[in-house]
Amino acid sequence: MINSKRVLAVTLARGGSKRVPNKNIRNIAGKPLIKYTFEEIKKSKYIDHYIVSTDCEKTKQICKDNNVFFHNRPIDLATDFTTSADSLMDVVKNYPGFDIVVEVMATNPLKSFEDIDGVIEKLVKTNADSVVSVVRIWDNHPARVKYIENDRMINFYPEIPESRRQDLSPPAYVRNGSIYALKVKAFLKHRVRVCPDSRPFIMPEERTINIDEMKDFYLAEILINEKV
């Protein structure tokens, strides 16, 4: 709880990952990927209740082994076409009585409880509809991203010729696949995780990785082992 507001944390963990099979429960540096999120959630100062939404029996067993509550995700919300917002909405509607919902994604095992609490604190402090974790990007700055038309490179955003990446302005940020915090009322109204009044929570590069492919998994394992 923060400022008398009850906080629900949710991790969406369906079992049908294609690029990295069994991604959420695959062992990384000696333990299931999702367990890294469990450990940081339990350190949070503000989270009143934590739920893992899953259709995967193995994930449910890992939840039981770690004393984590799980929600049986309906089959129709566990497809390749289901949006994260729809799955999150299913949990919010089934577990009423909370003022804030925080989606804490299992795909970044490097995030810390300080990041989770920082996102919640910013949501309350700014009175925004939502706060999203982001990370600064360098080589993928919009000024360096092009589209091709008639075999010519065309700018999405003006680029100063021969500029160094550290000189690209303004600084650019991308959602880093870690944390979304929302007022429940705003989420029920807009039905998206990035609401009209959405603010950034900037995370450091060293605590950012979004596991979507096997190469991300191998890199995350290296980074985790380096921290031990």
Short characterization:
With 228 residues, this protein is of the alpha/beta class.
Set out the fold topology.
Layout (H helix, E strand, L loop, with lengths): L6 E6 L14 E2 L2 E2 H9 L7 E6 L2 H9 L3 E4 L11 H11 L5 E5 L8 H14 L3 E8 L8 E4 L2 E4 L16 E12 H7 L7 E5 L11 H14 L1
Parallel strand pairs: 1-4, 1-6, 4-5, 7-11
Antiparallel strand pairs: 2-3, 6-10, 7-10, 8-9
Describe the structure.
By secondary structure, the chain is an alpha/beta fold. The protein has a single domain, classed as Spore Coat Polysaccharide Biosynthesis Protein SpsA, Chain A. The chain has six helices and eleven strands. The strands form three sheets. A seven-stranded mixed β-sheet has the order 5-4-1-6-10-7-11, sandwiched between helices. Strands 2-3 form a two-stranded antiparallel ribbon. It has a two-stranded antiparallel sheet with strand order 8-9. 33% of the residues are buried.
